[in-house]
Write a structure and sequence with these properties.
Number of helices: 3
Number of strands: 5
Order of helices and strands: EHEEEHHE
Shape: globular
Strand order of the largest sheet: 2-3-4-1-5
Structural class: alpha+beta
Radius of gyration: 12 Å
Largest sheet: 5 strands, antiparallel
Distance between the termini: 8 Å
């Protein structure tokens, strides 16, 4: 199993609907995604994959949040690794 953790701080709480649209909680057979709102302008998105290869194929959420970072709309930190 492989996981990706994305923490973010939005520069405006009004951006939350964008985060919810791309990162809503999803549970499937080989992929799970959990979205947690920690306060009005920050949160955590956790993705769990069956393998590292699956993680490299599912980049939509990561790209969306990095796009917000590039537009100076959010601060984003990403961690990835094998679950032990």
């Amino acid at each position: 199993m492989y996981a990706r953790k994305i923490t973010f701080t939005l520069l405006a709480p009004s951006i939350w609907p964008v985060i919810e649209a791309v990162g809503k909680t999803h549970i499937g057979d080989d992929y799970r995604r959990y979205l947690m709102k920690t306060n009005s302008n920050s949160g955590l998105l956790m993705e769990v994959f069956a393998s590292r290869q699956n993680a490299s194929q599912k980049l939509e959420v990561l790209k969306a949040l990095q796009g917000l970072h590039e537009q100076a709309m959010a601060k984003v930190a990403i961690s990835e690794g094998e679950l032990i």
